Amino acid sequence: MVALSDCPYSPAELLLHRPPMLLLHQIVGYNASELIATVIIGRSSLFLSPQGVPSYLAIEYMAQTCGAYVGAMALDAGLPLKVGLLIGTRDCSVTIPWFVVGDELVVTASLAFHDEGLAAFDCKVTVGQTVVAQAQLKVYQPKEILFPSDEES
Q1: Which residues of 34-43 are buried (b: 16+ CB within 10 A; e: fewer)?
Q2: Is the pLDDT of residue 152 over 60?
C-alpha cells in the first residue's frame, strides 16, 4: 500500500457541491489511487432525524469521496473541476440502520478501474474500527454536459 500524502485541498475546493449538500468535513489524505475523507455526524447534519442520519446516505458520502479523489487529481494536474455522475453501485452492504450524533465516519475511495471518463471505486465507511458500509461505485465524467441554463445563453 502506498502511503497517503496530506491533502492541500478542502472538500469545498475538490467538489462542485455547495452547502448544504457538501457533506464531507475533511480530507485525511490521498495518493494516486486512493482518497480518505471524514464525515462528522453532528446536531446540524443534513438529514438528521431523532434516530440519527439514515445509513443509506453512506452512498452519497462514498460518491462525494470519489468526487474528491477526481477533483484532487484534476487540481494536481492543473485542470478545472468537472461534473461527475454516479451511474451505479455493486455489492453494496450497510450493516447499521443509523449514523448517530457524535459518529466520525472515515470514508475511503480506492480506484479500481478507469478508462475514457468511466471509473470504478471500491469504497467503505468505517466507524471506529468497524466497517459499516461498503460498495463499488461506478462513475462517469462526460467531456461536456449541458444544463438547461447553458442552452439559454
Answers
A1: bbbbbbebee
A2: no
